[in-house]
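Researcher: Structure for this, please.
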Amino acid sequence: MSTAHHFLDNQPQSFAKTIDESTYSSIVDLIEQSFTKFADRPAFSSFGQVLTYAEIERKSGYFAAYLQSQLGLKKGDRVALMSPNIMAFPVVMLGILRAGLVQVNVNPLYTPRELTHQLNDADTDTIIIYGGVTDTLAEMIDQTSIKNVVIANLGDATNARLPSPEVNDRFKDTITLNDVLVEGANFRFTAPKITLSDLLFLQYTGGTTGLSKGAALSHGNLVSNIMMYDSIASGITEEGKEIVITALPLYHIFALMVNFFSYFKFGALNVLIANPRDMPGFVAELGKWKFSAISGVNTLYNGLLHTPGFADLDFDNLKAAWGGGAAIQRVVSDKWLELTGQHIKEGYGLSETSPILTLNPLGVRHFTDTVGLPMPSTEITLRDPAGNEVADGEPGELWARGPQVMKGYWRNPEANAEVMTEDDFFKTGDVAILTKEGYYKIVDRIKDMVLVSGFNVYPTEIENIIAEISGVVEVAVIGVPNEKTGESVKAFVVKSRDGLSGSEVKIYCHDNLAAYKVPKFVEFIDELPKSTVGKILRRELRNY
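Model: Predicted structure, token format:
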């Protein structure tokens, strides 16, 4: 019998112990109830354009009809969406989901190599892609089975004709989302029967093998995590009156679950930020709204705090600032509290867990320096390498069980065997301790993962790329502290060619990896530290 820590054991304030997973029959059921309940209310804002819940229903219905009638897609087929936070995202996604299809969330920053793997692994023939990143698709589309391409431009799905980046010549005559919506209006959308066990997303996450794996998330996984969030946030939330700021990318499961679905359920207005790296522009946009909720990673919050004009904004309506993706630093949360009246509430989760496993309670006014408490209906247990529970206060690998945990990776039984136990616990690969107050604190990562601005970077993937360079004998990659991004990637290389330089390594990585994965530092050494069986000891490189 497991002695896993349930939500109410050692609890500083009372929440529901469990959630009712059968409240909705699917994510689509939840979406459609909001369409009806909040029809006249604004749903999304992007570049000054606003669509109501009724308009989003109509346009996503046209898109769903097009997918069914023109592309012949059937329930369960995978459709890739590769877009930043622009109005096309909600219209396309809700159309995909209403048609009973499975959305493959794709990072627009991917290189051709990364995109090829993901599209082939997901086994999809359809992609909706932001026009500004079509060069990537043009380079590798012949290596995939993609037949259907829809171009989404900045103003698409609205009445605005916004200047958009040039589309790659190969896709000059490709249908745009605006034209798809016009065509889709001529067809009847047939709603399929969707259940909680049906697949909803393939959420790709890095792996120790170097190739990303698709976490297969069901309608039930997401509905349960939304209900968990609801049980915690409903006390501070007024239906139809919330304004949530979405600066984290919606292809990231944190923003999808919290900002998109949870606040869609509340009938909120969702302000989409397409390029949060433009901090002055971001602050200018924030100045237009009396926003009540925001989510972000530590680097995003820190960036806002250091941007002129931020301190002058109106924070009277702010009820919650959620943090995740990487540890929230106390100094950042303290400064945020000073300016806004709210601490940043840190949570913890993974793509495989839809994502939230733990969260800091809203009622606790101080900064806990932890990732909080288990969500309702969620069990957390800390285990030693042999799988035994550790004593209180001792570090152990965090295992989790709950209705938000994926059933497994897409078509990858070997990976599933590594991370799922026979009694349905998911091994996170993160090491945590349970504090005396009953909070969880993440202390280390078994997987040697590097976190750059909240993005997971897996050393093996980068090592595999660098190893392809002529003259590289061995390579090991670690994360080193960086005040701005949390961590930076550093590569240690053993070389056999005198002329091989650090800049050559960086350029090759830049051509084959997303920018945040490219090593900031390259150091050449005579040999790498290894164990007696020849395994490279990355942890020893931290002392170099």
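Researcher: Any notable elements?
Model: Residues 450-541 form a domain with the GMP Synthetase; Chain A, domain 3 fold (CATH 3.30.300.30). Confidence is low (pLDDT under 50) at residues 6-12.
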